[in-house]
Design goal:
570 residues, mainly beta, 5-stranded mixed β-sheet, Immunoglobulin-like, elongated
Length: 570
């Protein structure tokens, strides 16, 4: 299956001494304008720290931005390295490779890394130009700290695309100001194709801790065609794992359920519903307040079985967290999604503290939309067709350019000339069987039409179709490949001899006149089976082929006059 979207995984583990790394994308992108980075994490960080008992949980070590530098390179960056902690980084490069203006198209309208101002609660990108519909724009991004000692609410923020007079901008918002000035790498994607349906849900304020809230949305085509993309903005004083755990999922095609584990005055969820009837989305997990995954040893991996996806056109999405309450354990709420195989969804966290509910989605992007095709219709064909003669097809919709277009007669390919939208000419192949045969015309779109026409042998040629019971193999025409019922024996009609039916009934040879030497004339035979002429080979007619009547020929003449080696074209 061909897809309109191509997905490539880019990953790298920053060593304990590294803060940045440029990683080569497996295949060069066609254009930056049609490619964005998807961060498969529960928080907008492109990395997850591999925690040890002595490792710091400060987000300066595990908060990682991912930037698409050019068509070949992704750059991972964190604020600082630490002796005890490596950081596993991963993004998926999502690229539209379909036809420009196609129904599944998306265009990247803006790409920028900004830094939050000191003490600021929000930061606007520079002006964004080229947007056709603000309502079809979705932000993607990743965040990193700029200094040590910052809390999660000071670093992690939500993104939204808005009109801020006089320009469209991407806005990053955090709940806790402090002294930190985090970096936000953002991309604004406009889903321009007609198949995309985007809903930007107004910022949702949770009603209470660990409580499900319902929001009515416009109906999506199906639950299996809707992808939930969300940002969590934890409350300003919350730094424990449960403070930064938030979920959103669809319980029906018109109902969005949101839930935050622990809320505060500034706790918010920003949700985008991305739907496409041609997309395939598998969702697992529900929210009922009960942990689905319990704490384990660090690091921790969970696997879910899914229906097979095409890894070159699919991304994993994870919403998971932790019920842990210690502020030093907040990386336990940061899960990464991956595909362990085409049928296995994998969730990973570097530090395992507290249990977790989860919402996991395996998103397979749309297959290429079928191109519009032109039907072909045959109006007439030269009739009857005679093998070796030039014939004409008159039709509509054959298309001016032949491309993969073709003509067959009875399954035999022909060589066409003068191909046009309204017809062509061709020479009837010598291998086509006699009788009523189908002429099939295929145009360059793969559309076909069929026209039945009579096929006749050339002048002075007789044809017999083998049927019934053939004479024993040793007594009939044979060559490099033996004849079978359904073949045709064709021969030029000789003088003074009638051979009709002779290959079906061996006694038919009795109709030959034994008083002349008709069998001394030259007979040219072919076996037609509709697959091609093959090679020529000699054939011997044996005495017993001609029946049992002793009066046909004197015994002394039978072998000398009747035994002939003739040419067989096959």
């Amino acid at each position: 299956m061909a897809f309109d979207v191509k997905v490539q995984e880019v990953s790298y583990t920053l060593t304990s001494a590294e803060t940045t790394k440029d990683v080569t994308i497996p295949a060069t992108l066609s254009s930056l304008a049609n490619a964005f980075l998807y961060v498969p994490f529960s928080l907008p960080s492109a990395g997850v720290g591999r925690e040890s008992s002595s490792a710091s949980s400060d987000p300066q070590y595990w908060g990682v931005t991912a930037e698409l530098i050019n068509t070949t390179t992704v750059r991972f960056t964190r604020q600082a390295a630490t002796t005890n902690e490596s950081c596993a980084c991963k993004v998926f490069v999502v690229e539209y490779i379909g036809t420009a203006g196609g129904p599944n198209e998306f265009i990247v309208r803006h790409r920028e890394t900004v830094q939050m101002g000191s003490g600021g609660s929000s930061k606007n990108s520079s002006a964004i130009s080229g947007i056709s519909s603000l309502a079809k724009c979705v932000p993607f991004g990743s965040v990193r700290a700029n200094t040590s000692g910052l809390t999660v609410p000071q670093v992690f923020c939500e993104l939204n695309v808005e009109f801020s007079s006089p320009n469209n901008v991407c806005v990053a918002r955090r709940s806790s100001t402090g002294a930190g000035q985090p970096y936000i790498s953002m991309e604004v994607v406009e889903f321009t194709g007609s198949n995309w349906e985007i809903q930007q849900i107004a910022e949702i304020t949770p009603s209470a801790d660990d409580t499900s809230d319902n929001t009515t949305i416009t109906a999506v085509p199906a639950l299996t065609a809707a992808w939930i993309h969300r940002f969590v903005k934890p409350h300003s004083s919350g730094n424990a794992p449960d403070d930064i755990t938030g979920y959103a999922y669809l319980s029906s095609t018109t109902n969005l359920v949101t839930r935050m584990k622990d809320t505060g005055s500034a706790s918010r969820l920003r949700v985008f519903v991305i739907a496409n009837a041609e997309m395939t989305v598998q969702t697992q997990g529900t929210l009922d307040g009960t942990d689905d995954w319990t704490a384990g040893s660090s690091p921790q991996t969970q696997n879910l079985t899914i229906t097979a996806v095409d890894l070159t056109a699919s991304i994993p999405s994870i919403q998971a967290g932790s019920s842990g309450t210690a502020s030093t354990d907040h990386p336990a709420a940061h899960w990464r999604a991956d595909f362990a195989s085409t049928t296995s969804f994998e969730a990973f966290r570097g530090k395992s503290t507290g249990g977790s509910e989860y919402i996991a989605q395996a998103i397979q992007f749309p297959a290429q939309a079928a191109a519009a095709t032109t039907p072909v219709s045959i109006t007439s064909v030269t009739s009857p067709l005679v093998r070796g003669d030039v014939a004409t097809i008159v039709a509509t919709g054959m298309k001016a350019t032949q491309g993969i277009g073709s003509v067959t007669i009875g399954g035999v390919d022909v060589t066409e000339s003068g191909w046009s939208d309204t017809g062509c000419t061709f020479t009837v192949p010598s291998t086509v069987l006699n009788g009523v045969r189908d002429v099939v015309v295929t145009n360059s779109d793969g559309e076909q039409d069929t026209y039945a026409v009579q096929v006749n042998p050339p002048a002075n040629t007789t044809s017999v179709t083998l049927a019934g019971t053939l004479v024993p193999a040793g007594n009939r025409v044979s060559g490099d490949v033996d004849v079978v019922v359904g073949n045709q024996i064709e021969y030029h009609t000789p003088t003074n001899c009638v051979l009709a039916g002779c290959y079906v009934d061996p006694t038919g040879w009795a109709s030959c006149d034994p008083t002349n030497e008709a069998l001394d004339c030259s007979f040219q035979y072919r076996i037609l089976d509709g697959t091609g002429p093959g090679t020529s080979a000699p054939i011997t007619f044996k005495t017993s082929t001609f029946g049992t009547p002793a009066t046909q020929f004197p015994r002394s003449q039978r072998r000398s006059r009747i035994r002939r080696t003739l040419n067989l074209g096959r």
